[in-house]
Amino acid sequence: MNLKRILKLEFGIPVLRKILKKVYKEGNYYTVRLGKLRGLKIFFRRDINIHTLIGLWETENIEALDKAIKKLNLNKRNCVIADVGANMGYYSMYFAKRFSSKSKIYAFEPSTSVLDVLKKNIAINQFENVIIIEAACAQSAGVVEFFIHANHHASSMIHSQEENSHSGVPITVNTISLDDFFDNENGGEYPDLIKMDIEGAGVYALKGCERCIENKRPLMLIESHTGPEDEAIGYVLRKFNYEALRIETNKWILHKDRNYEDIDGVYGKMLLIPSEKMREYKN
């Protein structure tokens, strides 16, 4: 068995998956043994990826983000962080461990299928500075249909996701914009860091956080899932003068006005850095 595959825990390896499923029992909490979340506890449910319990979930993203946080000196001050699409709280827990207890982490998650796990994970680790917001981020406040997928990571308010959903029936959730939320609920203090992974719905959420981006110039970690989401991110890069590093290839995006159809266009997992901070990042 390839050692590199084992270390990355690529669970296409059936034997390894079966062994780990016998080790971890549903309904228990387990201590993370590896990675940036080492020492924290995570609640296990059958649909929770084993990667998360080990501490090797999205390691490339975490490493890239951790490097940027250090380079831009964000870890040396109290920060406001928006975890958009918090899901079970993996990134929120990373932020709570990485930053001071006086930093504020807002975990935005509308999906009723995973909210209980998010709440359990935050509670068991006693992260009092993680505030859970049960709403979807969009262009404005309102209500929207939200489609629950059998894989909780794939739930979305994008209608096309319904075709892949085993529930077949959407739920109704509240929406907010990040701009209005931070104006009204956080005294106008916009986030220093935004993580966004919402299965294509960035086409709406990015329109609702333009004041945040323009006024605070946050570091952003974002994953694009669709062509329209690529284009929405490209618009942000051009309008607000950001550079983007594609994490999978460790290459800078050259064509901000093109999507996944261009190898140097906007797509995939990206770190968005304000242009004025590029020298600081590269030093």
Brief overview, please?
This protein has 283 residues and is α/β, with parallel strands linked by helices. It has helices at residues 3-8, 14-23, 50-54, 59-71, 90-98, 115-124, 178-185, 202-205, 210-216, 227-239, 278-282, and strands at residues 29-31, 41-43, 80-84, 104-108, 130-133, 136-137, 142-146, 171-176, 193-196, 219-223, 242-246, 251-252, 269-274.
Distance linking N and C termini: 39 Å
**Strand adjacency order, main sheet:** 5-4-3-9-10-13-11-12
**Helix and strand composition category:** alpha/beta
Radius of gyration: 18 Å
Oligomeric category: single chain
Share of β-strand residues: 15-25%
As for the number of domains, it is 1
What summary fits the major beta sheet?
Answer: 8 strands, mixed
Spans where pLDDT lies below 50 across 5 or more residues: 1-7, 161-168
What overall geometry do the principal axes of the alpha carbons give?
globular
User: CATH superfamily name?
Assistant: Vaccinia Virus protein VP39
Count of helical stretches: 11
Q: The CATH topology is what?
A: Rossmann fold
Strand tally, please?
Answer: 13
Would you kindly provide a written description of the structure presented here, covering whatever features stand out?
It contains eleven helices and 13 strands. The chain has 283 residues and is α/β, with parallel strands linked by helices. The strands form three sheets. An eight-stranded mixed sheet has the order 5-4-3-9-10-13-11-12, sandwiched between helices. It has a three-stranded mixed sheet with strand order 6-8-7. It has a two-stranded antiparallel ribbon with strand order 1-2. Strand 3 (80-84), helix 5 (90-98) and strand 4 (104-108) form a beta-alpha-beta unit. The chain is globular and about 50 Å long. The termini are far apart.
